[in-house]
Structure to design on (286 residues):
């Protein structure tokens, strides 16, 4: 994992907040299956960490919550980036041992495992290949959806002692279902992201600083899919981390010019993308 993609001068993804139907069930899953620690917990909310201090994921059980709306926009998956291939091998062994149903892909730039939580929220756990080995051309970075060589990955194991998520795990990216690509692209370009790859007219990937992607957008739920109801399980909000206040102000002005309201809260700015996905705009604390 290369730290340069997740610090100034880049803009990247921070905290992800999701809604669940049963908080205790979800806490057990995220501890026992994914390997998070509980940083703080209240009656209806839990803040989850990998290092004991930085919160990567917040899970909340609203008072009245309905099952995930499968035909609506929202979260496709959030993606946890682990530092090394050996870390991913330990996680694969752990998940296989406890019988979790998994998907997997070799994306050329990374190797990834896919699963869902008890509410159907998508999760990716991945590790990056060395960025010097990524292939760039006139259309962007080359990515693929190839089968992962699980035997080769598991050969990285020196021992089978799984101890949860590594402390240096980061929120690598987020991938969203959106209602339409062009307006969504324009919105996130206003926030500073650039398109680095496309999958036909169905999906695109965006980043800053030459990363393979901090953000994915797709229309796999259908063109003009509706926004998820407020009382549905699924994505609540996610944070975009700006390197300084000036870049956040520029982004806010650009959204305002495009007629996307930006509400300035004491700790963050909040807005919504064209598909109703809630975005919190934060500045990296120094």
């Amino acid at each position: 994992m290369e730290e340069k993609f997740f610090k100034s001068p880049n803009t990247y993804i921070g905290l992800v907040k999701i809604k669940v139907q049963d908080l205790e069930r979800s806490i057990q899953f995220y501890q026992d299956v994914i390997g998070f620690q509980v940083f703080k917990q209240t009656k209806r909310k839990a803040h989850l960490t990998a290092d004991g201090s930085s919160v990567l994921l917040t899970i909340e059980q609203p008072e009245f919550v309905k099952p995930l709306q499968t035909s609506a926009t929202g979260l496709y998956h959030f993606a946890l980036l682990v530092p090394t291939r050996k870390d991913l091998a330990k996680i694969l062994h752990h998940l296989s041992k406890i019988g979790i149903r998994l998907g997997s892909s070799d994306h050329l730039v990374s190797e990834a495992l896919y699963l869902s939580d008890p509410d159907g929220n998508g999760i990716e756990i991945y590790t990056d290949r060395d960025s010097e080995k990524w292939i760039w051309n006139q259309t962007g970075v080359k990515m693929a959806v190839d089968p992962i060589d699980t035997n080769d990955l598991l050969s990285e194991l020196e021992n089978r002692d799984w101890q949860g998520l590594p402390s240096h795990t980061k929120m690598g990216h987020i991938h969203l279902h959106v209602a339409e690509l062009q307006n969504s692209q324009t919105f996130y370009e206003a926030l500073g992201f650039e398109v680095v790859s496309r999958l036909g007219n169905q999906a695109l990937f965006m980043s800053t600083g030459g990363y393979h992607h901090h953000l994915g957008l797709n229309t796999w739920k259908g063109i003009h899919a509706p926004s998820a109801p407020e009382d549905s399980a699924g994505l609540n909000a996610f944070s975009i981390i700006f390197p300084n206040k000036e870049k956040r102000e520029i982004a806010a002005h650009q959204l305002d010019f495009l007629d996307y309201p930006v509400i300035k809260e004491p700790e963050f700015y909040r807005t919504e993308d064209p598909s109703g996905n809630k975005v919190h705009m934060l500045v990296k604390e120094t």
About this structure: The radius of gyration is 18 Å. Residues 85-97 form the longest helix (13 residues).
